[in-house]
Amino acid sequence: MAEETKNYLLEEDNETSGFDYKAFLVKLLMYWPWIVACVAVALIGAFFYLKTLTPLYTVSSSILIKNESKGGTNGANLEDLGFVSSSTQSFDNELEILRSRTLIKKVVTALDLYISYSVPGQFRDTELYKQSPVRVWVTPEEAERMGYAQVKMSFHNQQLHEVLVEHEGQEWKKTVESLPAVFSTPVGVFTFSAADSTQQTIQPVPGIIQAIVVSPNAAAASCRSRLAVVPGSKSTTIAQLTVTSSQVARGVDFLNKLVEVYNEEGNNDKNEVAAKTAEFIDERIRIINKELGTTESQLASFKQRAGVVDIAADASQAAGEQANYERAYAENEVQISLVNHLKNHILSEKSQYEVIPANIGLNNSDLNTVVQNYNQMLIERKRLLRTSHEDNPAVQSLNASIEVMRNSVMGAIQTAEKGLLINRQALQAQTRKYADKVSDAPVQEKEYLSISRQQEIQANLYLMLLQKREENNITLASTANNARVIDEPLAGGQFFPTPSQTYTMALGIGLMLPIGVIFLLGLLQFKIQTRGDVERLTNLPIVGDIPLTPETAEGAIVIRENRNELMEEVFRSVRTNIQYMLQEGQKVILFTSTTSGEGKSFNASNLACSFAFMGKKVVIVGLDIRKPGLNKVFHLSHKEAGISQYLSDSEHTDLLSLCQVSTVSPNLYILPGGTIPPNPTELVARQALDDAIQQLKQHFDYVILDTAPIGMVTDTQLIARVADLSVYVCRSNYTAKSEFKLINELQQDGKLPHLCVLINGIDMNKRETGSYYGYGKYGKYGHYGYGKKYGYGYGYGYGQKK
What is the mean pLDDT of the chain? Predict the structure, then answer.
């Protein structure tokens, strides 16, 4: 049966748990001024919120990124070999480059975006872009070191009068007499100059203009977070650039400069091979020019020493052939020299990832092709490193490919060198053959031919290098930009905030917040609050409403004899209602509740006092023998004998001798619970309880029984057989609405005779005070109290101790 009554607390009834929409609408009408006030506050808050926000605008542009490999025309061949990315991957890489921190930082530095100007306002600062009459300049390096600094410029008669620099709580001030002015501080040097005459500055000049200096890295990060770079479609290489900015002009300048810097970086990548080639050609021209001058001096000296001006053509056909072979030999030597230079260049540790000079006059087409492919891979590696790092798998894969290609270059060089050396031997043999035929020629002619040959070789080489230099310069001048602007940057309107959405949201919040709070409070109100809640939950008669009061009293007795205050009148009303419910000869009144903390013992004790004050002889019996509560109410010792001793041995115990006269009134007697027995349920089920009640009815006008909570144990249902009237105590803001299912079941089953309800602890201010206590292992805990200073409570312990 104990388990059965406990399950009542876990069941929910649709009638008790349903939501009363009519009551909710009535409550809304009661609180309509607060709802209107919340809406007004929300709209006013939205108005001032919009005043504090800086409008943001979107600026958009579109560019065409040319899908061609950088650094030469052999990119397609490398792509076929798998050494470079596909066209789609290349386009994605270019988008990442446009979003890269390095590129954006260069834009920020070029436009001085790490320095911003504004005029302090009442709600927000008004930003100035190219409108400040005075320009503040700090080098990017110093701005990076200082991180953040604020410069306040004070103007008098439209002229800069004073500047104040603030940095990390420190201030430096200077009076400005004329512009330009330099202000050196411990954190950096600030330069002040008049704005460009072509710029339209703010008029009239405000009293204070503040400049904020941040690190270029921080400014670049801010710009990067507000920049969107997305492909226009899957089938094109058009990129859409969008940036949000508080100034449209700044957004336009940012996008234009971004494309400009991107093209500059791309052109630098493309021209890297040509630049290296130009350096090589210039160095060779300088050396050949020096050697050619020396040879010409030797030839002039020889003619002067030999005393000849023109040597007759005495040489035979052999001499002519010899000259042809010697010319071929000279050209072969030039090729060997160029091959050796390339060999020394690639074997140098410093040139591991440096491009190899190309187009320097080598006649070996296979070697030229391998060198050009090798340079393409080095350029691709440098481009990847701008947006990645050495540990990137793509970079490591490309490094391996570069090493393979480097070995291929070395193999091609060795092959070309071997062929040239073989050709040299053949040319030398032919030259010696025809040289023997002219051995009879004068020594002067031999020497002359030797010097002349050297001069011719050097002159030809010099002219060839000049030609290659011009070709290389044409390559440098003809480099095309990698990106072309399709749509110029254009403002797309205000992006944030949107006043209509803000006001709509404020209106919704102003309405929903109070309504939601009222709804939730009603929805989460699982406990009874007022008499109306009890009337909706049960048809049982209500004998009284006991309010919370600040009145204090000794113990738990809050009423006094011959006093007409609130609590006295309340318990007189309860007493009268109970008297009307009792029939002739009925004297036994049982008090119970669902669980502890609902004020059962408190109300039983004070009602007993009220009967005693009217001259009735009353005894209150502590039948909650598991945890006698009356001992604490009337300050009795737990060791005192009581009803449990009588029930245990009724034949040898005098019941009336156990009754004690209370100190509250001589008409009030107390029969305490006594010592706690091991079998309380069996004791109250004995006939001895019936005999005890009969004895008490013979000697007292009223017998009030303080029993255990019926929702916890079955003791009260057994005791109910001796009662004439049952008072079920529930407590405002404590008793759950679902517990009235148990109360109604008890009425329907007739387990408690003449059942009525007493509402305890009604507090209009919802203030709860008191001590904490509970029913042992059943886990029901609560608090109970009256007023701000008075509180009372006790705990139950059932079952085995854990």
Answer: 79
Enter the tokens of residue 17: 């748990």
Which one, of 587, 608, 591, lies nearest residue 599 by Cα? 591
Task: Say which amino acid occupies 109.
Answer: T
Domain boundaries, the chain: 56-270, 272-478, 540-777
β-strands 126-128, 115-119 pairing? antiparallel
Longest dimension (CA), the chain: 173
Q: Which strands make up the sheet holding 771-774, listed edge to edge? A: 771-774, 781-786, 790-791
Residue appearing with tokens 């602007």: 485
Check pLDDT > 60 for residue 508.
Answer: yes
As a whole number of angstroms, the distance between CA 774 and CA 792 comes to 13
User: Which pLDDT value is given to residue 438?
Assistant: 60
Give the closest residue to 379 by CA, choosing from 407, 353, 412, 413: 353
Q: What is the 3-state secondary structure (H, E, C) of 82-119?
A: CCCCCHHHHHHHHHHHHCCHHHHHHHHHHHCCCEEEEE
If pLDDT is split at 50, 70 and 90, which confidence band does 773 have?
Answer: very low
**CA pseudo-torsion sign 293, 295, 296, 300:** positive
CA 569 vs CA 144, 448, 556, 565: distances in Å: 81, 147, 17, 6
User: How far is C-alpha 128 from the geometric centre of its chain's CA atoms?
Assistant: 30
**Dihedral sign, CA of 736, 737, 743, 749?**
negative
Cα(703)–Cα(723) distance, rounded to whole angstroms? 9
- Identify each DSSP E strand in 286-360 by its residue range: none
pLDDT in tens, 475-500: 666 666 778 888 888 887 777 778 88
Q: Which amino acid is residue 88, in one-letter code? A: T
Lookup: tokens for 622: 């502590």
Average pLDDT over residues 546-558: 65
Count other Cβ atoms within 10 Å, centred on residue 726.
Answer: 26
> Can you name the residues that pair with 592 across neighbouring β-strands?
728
Q: Which two tokens mark 690?
A: 């019936």
Nearest to 210 by CA among 97, 292, 116: 116
Contacts of 177 (CB under 8 A, 6+ apart): none
Question: Rg of the chain's alpha carbons, rounded to an integer?
Answer: 53
Distance CA 620, CA 623 (A): 9
Q: What is the pLDDT of residues 17-65, one digit of tens each?
A: 455 677 678 778 888 888 899 999 999 998 888 887 778 888 999 888 8
Instruction: State how far the Cα of 556 lies from the Cα of 28, in Å rounded to an integer.
Output: 39
Both structure tokens of 59: 């600026």
Query: Per the confidence metrics, is the pTM higher than 0.85?
Result: no
Query: CB–CB of 612/618 below 8 Å?
Result: yes
Read off the DSSP letter of residue 714.
S
Q: What is the CATH number of domain 540-777?
A: 3.40.50.300
Q: Which of 721, 623, 723, 722 is closest to 681 using CA atoms?
A: 623
* Helix, coil or strand: residue 543: strand
Q: How many CB atoms lie within 10 A of CB 580?
A: 9
Cα torsion 722, 728, 734, 738: sign = positive
Residue-by-residue DSSP string for 740-784: HHHHHHHHHHT-STTEEEEEEEE-TT-----EEEEBGGG--EEEE
- Output the six-digit token pair for 467: 């030609």
- Measured over the CA atoms of residue 44, residue 46, residue 52 and residue 57, the dihedral's sign is negative
